[in-house]
Amino acid sequence: MEKVKTTCIYCGTGCQLWLKTKDGKVVDTKPVMPPEFNPGKGKLCIKGWNVHEFINHPDRLTDPLIKNARGNWEKVSWEETIDFIAAHFQKIISENPGNRRVIGCLSSAKCTNEENYVMQKFARAVLKTNNVDHCARLCHSSTVVGLGAAFGSGAMTNSIDEIVDAKVIFIIGSNTNEQHPLIGARILEALKKGAKLVVADPRTIPLSELAEDNGGIALNHLPGTDVALLNGIMNVIIAEKLYDEQFIKQNCENFAVFQEEIMKMTPEKAARITGVPKEKIIQAARMIGRAETTYLIYSMGITQHTSGVDNVKSTANLQMLCGNIGKWATGVNPLRGQNNVQGACDMGALPNIFTGYQSVADREIRKKFASVWGIEEKEMDDVAGLTVVEMMDAAYRGELKILYIMGENPVISDPDSNHVRLALQKPFLIVQDIFMTPTAELADVVLPAASFAEKEGTFTSTERRVQLIRKAIEPIGNSKPDWQIISLLAQKMGYSGLNYQSAEEILTEINQLTPIYRGITWERLQQDEEGLQWPCPDENHPGTVYLHKEGKFSRGKGFFHPVSFTAPAELPDADYPFILTTGRTLWHFHTGTMSRRSKTLNERVPEGYVEISKEDAQKLGINDNEMIKVATRRGEVRIKAKITNKVSDGLIFIPFHFEEAAANILTIAALDPIAKIPEFKVCAAKIEKVK
Ligand code: SF4
């Protein structure tokens, strides 16, 4: 057997693992052990241990496919397929002169930095549109906006290693032990060292019990009431003078206006809105306010709301208020769900920015990119493009004529998926993936991509750490790395600026154009086992463990945003009396494309379920494991009931991985007005017995 060291393809922790190969197949996985570097500290979670199981799965796409007039797939050569797609792009461009909104591209948080860079360059340099986005829109776009506005940088401020030294860890809207198990393991280590946990989550998650068993506090607030809870906590911290006055005076602005807003949310009022007893809010505030250091973790429980940006700004307010920024074991730490969602954002796979968060609206920035890309600045799109959900709506209206999707599965991942299915049937649809996903089934053309084990490149983990992935086997069948496919298309369309020979060559161009990645060269990544954390402005820079050191914020001063509570878009009523919230399980990943083809993972949790409280189940006469109907104003699913004490009365939870009981048939496409992230975490639902 041979073995190759690489980076895990599942969550954003960035664990290092060995892929073991035999006869051209990946047959086993082992963790990288100390003293070699591994953010997982010599461990892998259940997903990491079984990452090899999907790679050689018989369902892998091996050849390009074009749908014929009868709706059947026909295998075709690469040459014929590329000709076919290029002709469609050229036809639509010539039929819609000057209209930059008729074509859209979805990039992918599962692909490498280099592939995301190539996709956004293809959109901007070849198709001349900023209509490029990816699923960060659905998970952390509110982080990019909210932390960007407060601090000047929309990324995790601190690093995973610091967790073990925190005195208090405040976890809000993150089921860390199940979604980022090896970050969860560091929380357990911190507990052993005496740290206290404050856990706020609408469900009782494993960390809630750990918090209470170890002298901490668990708060079960109602979904969508995060701002009220955080403002209530900050109200107590200010009233009891537990805040860091000196840090605020030296490093922050707009405190007086912010304070005025906070003083309106008394703990009594916060208790009425959130459902958390006033005493617990006060206890949590004292624990955070008196701690020497508090490390704040959040995830999609904070971001996936119509108030997502406000929620994020509130977490930033709290950490500035207590001087918990720019120091070891502090910070605002949004955990990224997918392996490279941080990198896909960094690479500008978003409609308003180039790489490194450089604005498409800035002429000087456009000129810089145009000059390296060999195009005219005046040809470039200078207005932010459409987001994921806006592209689906434009497709539905018939305005988006071609959609090119790389490694995404919006039929399962996007809200209101019945609408998404209808929308995707209208444009010419190209899907590039490793498996025939429910989205690919709707396509006109399917392009077989190589998996992470079959190519080279880099991923950027949740802690801004850029690490290599290495090729263990040759691409399966006639599949190709995503960047090579895009390069073929660009060449066919007459553009030679995407004609790369290697991932290394692409990273060199990224270094040239991206100040925060300038010193993260291929050569250094090969030499440095630990990778490099951005910002890394030159080749001698060691990388940055935590941001905003000594209160020197990226935007100058930290900005206190006065944020007031607003209710979710759709609340329960007489017709739909339950709150539905959605999320993930330990055993599966995102839309299940990979994890459901892992025998070990799928055997453990082979089907979807809805969590319901014992009292609600009794009232409705529902038994455990009984098939029931859950419906919202968007649609309905038949799904097994799981009676549990994890959810309180009136709340139900469905994991979104399962196509046959797709939670996103039910969710609402109401958006945060700035980040345009959908409100996956709250909508009104009803439950019926199946007759
Ligand atoms: Fe992979 Fe995340 Fe598990 Fe680490 S914690 S092994 S990165 S899924």
What does it look like?
This protein is an alpha/beta fold and 691 residues long. It folds into four domains: 2-54, ADC-like domains (N-terminal domain of TfIIb); 65-137 and 339-513, 3-Layer(aba) Sandwich (Rossmann fold); 141-334, Dimethylsulfoxide Reductase, domain 2; 578-689, Barwin-like endoglucanases, CATH 2.40.40.20. The protein is built from 25 helices and 26 strands. The protein has a seven-stranded mixed beta sheet with strand order 5-4-16-15-14-6-7, sandwiched between helices. It has a six-stranded mixed beta sheet with strand order 22-24-23-26-21-25. A hairpin with a 5-residue loop joins β4 and β5. α2 (78-95) packs across α21, α5 (141-151) packs parallel to α15 and α9 (226-239) crosses α13 (278-290). The chain is globular. The structure holds iron/sulfur cluster. Iron/sulfur cluster is lined by residues 8, 10-11, 13-15, 40, 44-45, 47-48, 180-182.
Give the gist of this structure:
The chain is of the alpha/beta class and 691 residues long. The protein has 25 helices and 26 strands. α9 (226-239) packs parallel to α15 (308-321) and α18 crosses α20 (417-424).
Keywords:
Rossmann fold, N-terminal domain of TfIIb, 25 helices, seven-stranded mixed beta sheet, 4 domains, six-stranded mixed beta sheet, 32% helix, 691 residues, alpha/beta, Dimethylsulfoxide Reductase, domain 2, globular, binds iron/sulfur cluster
